[in-house]
Amino acid sequence: VSDTELRVSQDQSPTQKFLFYFLKLMHVLNYPSKGELPLLPEEHVQDSAKDVTYICPFIGPVRGSLSVTNYRLFFRCTDREPVFGLDLPLGVLSRVEKIGAATSRGDVSYGLACKDMRNLRFVHKEPEDSLKKSVFEVLMKFAFPVSNNMSLFAFEYKQVFPENGWKVYDPLAEYKRQGLPNESWRISKVNDHYELCDSYPAALVVPVTITDEELRRVSSFRAKGRIPVLSWIHPESQAAVVRASQPMVGQNGRRCKEDEKLLQAIMDANAQSHKMFIFDARPSVNAAANKMKGGGYESEDAYQNAELVFLDIHNIHVMRESLRKLKEVVYPNIEDSHWLSNLESTHWLEHIKLILAGALRIADKVESGKTSVVVHCSDGWDRTPQLTSLALIMLDSHYRTIRGFQILLEKEWLSFGHRFQQRVGHGDKNHTDADRSPIFLQFIDCVWQMTRQFPAAFEFNEYFLITILDHLYSCLFGTFLCNSEQQRLKEEVPKHTVSLWSFVNSQLEEFVNPLYVGYPSHVLFPTVGIRHLQLWVTYYIRWNPRMRPQEPVHQRYKELLAKRAELQKRVEELQREAANRTASSSSERAGSPTRSITPVQTFV
Amino acid sequence: MICSGFFVTSGEVEFCSANPILKYTQDDLSQRGVFGTLFCTNFRVTFISDEKPQEKTDKTFKNKLYGENDIPLMCVDHIYGVYDEKRKLITGGLVKNKYPSKMIIHCKDLRVFQFSLTFSKEEDAKKIFQGIAHHCLEEKSLKCVFAFSYMGTPSPEMQWKQETVMFDSPEDWTQEMKRTKANCRLVTENENFELSQRLPKYFVIPLTIGDLFSYQGKGLPIWCWSHYSGCALFKASFPPVTQEDGDFQKHLDTMINAVAHNHLYSVKTEDLSESLPNIQDIQQSYNKFKQFFLIENSTDFWLSDVKWFSSLESSGWLDIIRQCLQKAVEVVECLEKDNTNVLITEEEGTDLCCVISSLAQIMLDPYYRTLMGFQSLVQKEWVAGCHAFLDRCNHLHQKDKEYHSPVFLLFLECVWQLVHQHSPAFQFSETYLTVLSDSVHVPVFSTFLFNSSHHRESVMKAESPLAQSGPLSCPTVWDWSVQFDSKAQNFFFNPLYLEKVKHDRAVRKPHKPKHQRNLSLPSTAFKTPPKKGFFKDETDSLKKMLRVKRLSRWRGSPDAPAATTREFFESWQHRPLDYHGLLLPCLDGPAVHIWMQRYLRWIPEVYILGGGSVAVMTKLMELLSQVQDLKRVLEQRDSSQAAKLDHRPYFQHRLLSFDSSGRLSSSFPFAYTCYRSFKPIIPTGLMQSLMVTDSLASQEDEASSVVSFV
Fold it and tell me: Residues A118, A331: contact at Cβ < 8 Å?
């Protein structure tokens, strides 16, 4: 068979489909230049204006009309072919402001700073009637509903999907998958009403030898009451990944008998090792500085068989500043000749490297050292989930599937109280809030780095990760609202909103990595050298049309899968035909050729 | 003594050896290693371990000429000696008496070897050290190169050679002109190099040039390639500026006019030495760049990881790659969009002219993106085109540094960028390019040994009577069977390549403007009128004026071309991508990458076990062979009337049969790692890595609740 026949003809190349994917990624869709806006259920147009100019940094000023709904902003250009538009959820806006005074012609310019790495600028004529509100004033109101005492759009959106994403994560089922409870670990109900710790989930896995009363005492010794509890247990060695917040050691070196007993019990639960590691995510200087404020880290005297390791990951403020610098470097223009040193000066990839390196060390201790580990930072809700969830992805292939990843997010991030509301600032106009920080984005970036290094080990594709990030800000779904499980229950978020997973799981084929093989038992140890880390161009620089994403491998693979499916079908047909003809006479039967094919995901 | 059967190639002679020598395992500081014998022969430096070779997994990608512990003499880049803990660069002078306790060899293919000389007898150690230093560092004559001793048997399958157009005969050139519909003249007057020794044996020039013999052929516009519109790309050498006199200026004008005559009286000239870095800049930049990959131990690695991006930038290597690609895009723009003839010039006309013209041709002509087409292009522009490989690669270790420069490697780097960005457009793989870049330093092939066609012919002719068995038997690099068996050669093919259907590989269809991604942009101010011959009756002055205008436009402000090519790229990008049409690279900062496979393949710290592109390729290869097998099954069914069932196994993975367990490392197929020690590489020295000095670092996480705990 010649090469020519082997290779798929170009005519079948789904360039069109790919282009669509690209445009979707850009939120630039071809709308009919006239006619209805594609509104969601319960989405209503609040105001529109014609003759708005969008100052596009890439193609120059574009004139068109702007509409603001209770969910998003539509801009449709009217003077350009092909028709071009903007479609962005108001949730991505972090700031809307008037820039300068009106020009002599009455033009006012507005700047929109976005959470997703872009800034938009519009020029609009101020309405002559001073009583009438400008479309941008309406925009400001609906962009920050929380600041204006309105509810987020997620509470109005009532789309029904075939699957209910709120049911994806059942803590007891997940612990059962891990073989819990077992002889060493029990599931405690001590936090059933969030009395022990209001930022922890109701179900907690703790050593059987520790009573609920002891847990209560421990909670007074750990910052925000976030006691050491199990996140994951190794199916063979029984080494556990345990998460917590910092101990309240303080300047006087306070100790807590029950806390020491709890850590000893965690170590004892793993018969394979007589040692354990405590990973403090912070730089040692910062950990020490926390003693001044009552916090600190475990002393070697008090925790005799534990080795303390600092992972040197910086705090939320450093990360926020780093992303701000990154945005400066990539948007809108890239300085080509100094690109690399500019990138380095943001430290973004260095932070990524440190987080991945930390997770790698945790995974290594659990997998190779068969040792249990305790991970904490200050409060245990930012750096801690970054580290534990990345380590879990390395250790457990279940978390590399689409559903497994959803469970991981629901568990490590949402139920254990990563403060999404504070870190993202949903619907809040206070854009300078020092509690905002791209901690979750950083985690997703780390996952993306791993998918680059292990292109066949993850069931989901890049689009899945980008979709999660887009809806982190969109406020269309309830998933990332509030700061804790308790708050979400109080606000009845699952009752009144749609889960992001309802949407995702109802169109899975969009998010499947066609190269996925699985490797069920493999532990992934990524390379954390900065030589192998890349800037996630298709996320951070996606608004730049020159940085058009290219996914030829995936495309090619999909084509081949389609081709193979087609050929298989024909072989089977022919076989059936042959079998019918020879059915009466033949005593020997040929094995079906299709049987020897390794099963591959066939979402085409 | 070397036991029989040791020599991989006939003609190899041992110079000296020493035992025991400790070869350090590269990946740690623990000074562990393997004991064995170190040899120096006329072909290579080689280390043979005393330990019985462990049961080796069948290495799919084995080079037949040299193995993992062999360093061809030509491949040695630098030798360092460690004297009392101090590392010194070994040059001829230092060799005299003292020998170092440790010898570090940096190779041109970026491998690093470290040998301890302290275990063997002093005399042996001294001898092997001096022998290696002498043969690898001292200036030598061309005759000493192993190729002249090599007596490989000519391979039975000459397929590679036959299909690659060598451009060493008038027929090859005529065929190429026919293929591109060029309207030019083949020059055969230089057959015996009477015209010039720096010009190819055969070459093609514009029709209207009559006078060939003035100025030893300097300034002669040499045809490279013709666009389907009729305009063409030419290259020419210029004399050094000081020699410019009135007469020569006139001569140049004649030449430029001749190029303009080729198509519609339009020409753009570009002096590459003005707009691109010179060969010394290129050399210096590469010397800095390669240091980042010659890693001797883990500590070095993690230290250099910290300032990685700024170090890379300071070498300027990626910027030079970008500049070359940029220039090539400008040339493409002239040919494709403006349909003007282009004449690129440079002092010799055989360095950057080769880079730019080859790149432009790859972007414009899909034939050169096939494996055979690419090899033919290298023959046409580089080998027959008289690139001074011998001087540029410094095969003879000449002290005069002025002539060394990795110009050919620079070209391969640029091609790699294109392959990386538009993988389905190329029939050959990244591995092919890496192997080709290595082969430059394998002293067996005639391809990279000479400075010009004349040089090649004179040496080969002089050599042949001396050898008993007829002419010199040194193969061209395109005879890949010399280095790799056919199975390994499969790695040269890109599984992602989208072949054009019903398309004879050897004969390219004429380029027609029906390509989706060809451009029909608004005409520029200088767009020539469509009617040919419009200018025929015009006066010379008008022609001249036109030319001056064109020249000034190109040479205007330095930013202007970048801006127009940016526009050119964007309008190309807006059209649906056709992998068999025009191909342009994205040259923005984040789009220019490092050739990871070539530069990182020997560094264990960056191996991704079970990951890397090999994981994808494995999967693709597997699927490809399944599709292939299914097709075969269908064909059989069709022909055998489905009556008798064939019991042959249906699914053999014939393309590649490597272990698809996902446990191959990202450095595959080059370095093999031991899977037994499947341990993560934990970075050391993280503390130094990030010095955040601003006040944010010491700030409390919870800004709002500073005083909540006591």
Answer: yes
